What does this fold into?
Amino acid sequence: MIDGQKNGYMEIKRDITAALLEWEQRPERKPLIIQGARQIGKTWIMRKFGEEYFDHVAYFNFDASEELCREFENTKNPERLIDILRLYTEYPIEPGRTLIIFDEIQQSNKALNSLKYFCEEAPEYHILAAGSLLGVSLSQGDSFPVGKVEFLKMYPVTFREFLRADTPRMYEYLENLTEIAPLPEIVMGCVAEAYRRYQVCGGMPAAVAAMLDKRGVQEIEEIQKAILTAYALDFAKHAPGKDIPRIAAIWNSIPSQLAKENRKFVYKLVKTGARAREYEDGLLWLEHAGMIYRIYCSSKPGLPLSAYDDLSAFKIYLCDGGLLRVMAQLPAEVLWSENSLYTEFKGAMAENMVLQSLAAHFGVMPRYWMSEATAEVDFLLQDNTSLFPVEVKSGTRLGGKSLGIYIDRFSPELALRYSMNNLKRDGAILNIPVFLADWTKRWIKI
It folds into this structure.
């Protein structure tokens, strides 16, 4: 078992705490469900938040107790349920003083449905809920308390969170920037080096902790391989029987899908003769489990982005770049050296890492844009009422005409280009070092 509370994870401060604190202090608060892929630290953050901001934490794991699941079969009354829950914990359960945690809540439809009654009849209790594959369960619509719960999306550890623990001095420098100007060479060098370490471990908390503890690449990769194995076991345990081989085939094809120059998902790379309708359920399962991001092609840059999706054209990226590296069997030392064999996939890794940042910091999943076979922009990013074209380069070379074609055709207020070059405004293009993608919202405002 990979436990986020072990191996130094306590050192990693997570930004999601601010959103949890805002929820805790709201008088019209509803039970809150934290969503996200497994192994990203949902259980740890709920416990940690309870320990820091409440007098008591009453933790209940529905996967560990069939007896507890059965208790919710017998009553819907919140006060009756509270009386029963008090028998399952040694800690007091008091309104305003106790954080109630329902973990692995997907194991009990009745427990999930009970959140409706806590919202309506006992809103004075603070309730957090989460589950390893809760997104899959919610997509099935069983006993879902519509309108009676709040949702909070959680992501793997971001580079910003990693840098805060790894190189605090550089983190503080970046946090205090107030203008778009080239960064000092020492900052570029130190932060780029930290970013390479982050590319090795990715954002899974156990792997991040191993990197911060300097336990070596071998141990980091053993942790990552264990997570990948756990993901694969989820297919067999939780997915519908007919979809299991298709989900596994899609999952295993991701590195080869991304190795292509245009990254577009091609069904024949999954299996010769494969058809979209046979694999759509498998793709949806992986999406709902939080394991992949599906980025649709946008037919035109318009608001909202989702209204212009070409549902037949999309790209698939992994939820975590560190897992992608291990899954593709890419040696860590490649990140520190120039290798002529590491070309297309180097670009794919850069795109995956930037997408992780954009997904974690913007409320709308990006799209990508293509013209009539003459140009392609890696991502289209929506921020409130603004649309920004995004180009991602893995090195310092900035060749390519696609971004310029987009700018000439649509005249965006700003275009974003991520590369290993320094921070700089160049006409309509804002050049951002790829390792500073987590600060994109700040650069846009400046």
User: Anything to note?
Assistant: The chain has a mean pLDDT of 92.
